[in-house]
Structures are given as structure tokens and as C-alpha cells.
Amino acid sequence: MDGDLDGALTALDRLANSADRLDRARAGARAIEVRLASGKLDAAHAAQALDTLRYAWRGDRRELALRERLADMHQRAGAWREAFSELRGTEADFPQAAGSIHAHLAGMFASLLSGDATTRLTPLDLVAMVDENADLLTNAGDPAALQEQVADRLMTLDLPERAAPILQSLITTSPDPDTKARLGARLAALRLREDDAPGALTALAVTQGPGLDPAQQEQRALLRAAAHGRLHDPGAAIADLAGLTGPAADTTRATILEQAGNWAAAEAALARVVAATIPESGPLSDHHRDTLLRYATAAARAGDTAALTVLQAKEDDRIGSGPAADMLRLLKVAPVPERADMPRLRQEADLMQRIPAGFAAATAH
């Protein structure tokens, strides 16, 4: 109380080595807390020190408090798996306090997902922890919100074979139809990334429910259309998009029409995307250039030289340089009327040489 921490620690350390077992347990724990509060210990070393006191006093609320505090120190140190393991063991050893310990577990799990801790975990560690603590997703105070946080983290991982089963489990256990529908859309998107169009359609079908909000309905329609497009069923894909407007719908519509080789209709859809997303003035981003390149490709395939001429007049000064810009300039070159037009042919050849082979091949498809 006088601020003499060194004097306090000297006394506590002496008590921690006394003959009285209770004094040893109390003083040892108090000394660790004083050192932690004064910066003499960090959370990781405090956890190590608390672990040495695990058997100093057994069987009552004092041991329970020490073990819960040990779990908190592991959490503060970023040792999340050790923290969960400690609380799981404590829950098993103190069944009379299982309710409060489980609430502690659920709160810790929510903290893991809501903060930036997951960005410091390896993808495998995150998947393993979610898998090992799946029961916390249904018993938490707000299970729907927690399940969606898990889904968001899983969707960012490049481990689809590990993430998909967990998403499927969340769908099965979720009691809320809206949450189930959102999780189904995430699973469908994951399966489309893996080129599993039938699996995407199944995920959407089993999670379809009444009364979904318009945003959810649109997202699911876009995913359904993309899956039908992958299955070479453009009729069903276009039908999925019936009534939908806006850049997202038109972009998906254009993809389906491109896959079907309907270049005129694809050009019309992309023209609407260009009108809605490309600024009238100012510099163009890479995304803007990619959109213009896609539109120009469709116009060229459709033989719409008038559209290419308008595009050249409007955008030539600001498309900049780089592979996308070079391809745009190539596509905007009017068809050569005669083979003898060598200057034009040299221009095309020069542009083609400047475009990476992989980029040109991808654009052609």
C-alpha cells in the first residue's frame, strides 16, 4: 500500500517458502500478480509461474481461481490453444462450476474471433481451434453472430478442404434460418472457388428458407447463376438473374454470356457495368482498366467496331500503360482492310509482343 513493491515482494517470497501450505499458495499467487502489475513479468512468464503453483493447493475455489487465471494469462500471451485446454481440463475437474467455466470458455472464444488474434494464428491452428471448440458456437450468448464470425474467418483461408466441413457443421447446428442461409451462401462461394458447381447448388438448396431479405436473395441468386454457368446451362443461369439489376448482376450475367459465346449480349451487359462503375474523368484504377478490357473484348468478338471507336476516343488518354492497357489498344485497332497495310500490322505485332502470353490467353477465354 505504501508503494514499496520491492519490500512487498521480499515479504511475499519469504511467505511463499514458509512451512504453511496455505501461506505458500496464497503468497506465491500474490507475488506473481504484483510482478505482473508492476511490469516485472509479462503474461507469458506469469503463465509459467502460475503453472508451477498448480499443485500448491488443491480441490477448492482457490485452485479453481488459479487455473482460470492461468487460462487468462495464456490468452493474454497469445497461447490460445493452451488457454482453451486449461479451461477444458478445469471444467472436467470442477463439475460443480461447469456452467461458469463454460461461460468463460465461450467468452474467450468470442474474444478470439472478434479481435485481431486470428490474424496472428496460422490457418491450420485456427481451423483446429474452431474444430476442437465447435460446441461453443451453439452454446454462446449470441450463437448466430459467433457462427458468422467463424464463417468469415474460414472464408479467408486458403484451406477449402478444411473449411468446408466446418461450414457444413455450422449449417447443420445453426438454429436460425437467416444465419443458416448466410452460411449456405458462404459454403456455396467456397465450393465455386473449388470448381464444385453441383456442391454449390446443393449448399444453396438445403439452406433456402422463407422470408430472406432482398440482399440475401440477390447474393444467393448470383451464386446460383454462377454455378449454372459453370455447368454449361446458360438458360438456367440467365433465369436465375431475372429481375436483378446493377453492376454485380450484370457482371455475372456477362460472365455467363461470355461462356456461352453470346458476345453481343455480353457486350450489352458489360456496357451497363462500364456506365455504372467507370468514372467520367480522372485516373483509372487497375480494376477500371480490367473492366474496360473485358468490355472491349466482348465488343471486338461481337464485331462492334463503332463501340470500339467510341471507347478509343473517350478513354485512350487515360488508360495508361501495362498489359491491360496494351491489350485495350490492340482491341481498339480497327480491322485491317488489306494485308498490304504494313504500318498497321507492325503496330499490332508490337502490341502483341508487349503483352505477356498468359495474360493474352486468359483474356481470350
Report what the structure shows.
This protein has helices at 5-16, 21-37, 43-52, 61-76, 80-93, 98-114, 123-132, 136-139, 143-155, 160-173, 177-193, 197-206, 214-230, 234-240, 247-260, 263-277, 286-302, 305-315, 323-331, 342-354, 357-364. It is mainly alpha-helical. Helix 16 (263-277) packs antiparallel against helix 17 (286-302) and helix 19 packs antiparallel against helix 20 (342-354). It has 21 helices and no strands. The protein starts with a helix and ends with a helix. Residues 334-342 and 360-365 have low confidence and may be disordered. It is elongated and about 95 Å long. 73% of the residues lie in helices and 0% in strands. The longest helix is centred in the first third of the chain and has 17 residues, at 21-37. It has 3 domains: 1-115, Serine Threonine Protein Phosphatase 5, Tetratricopeptide repeat (Alpha Horseshoe); 121-205; 262-365, no CATH class.
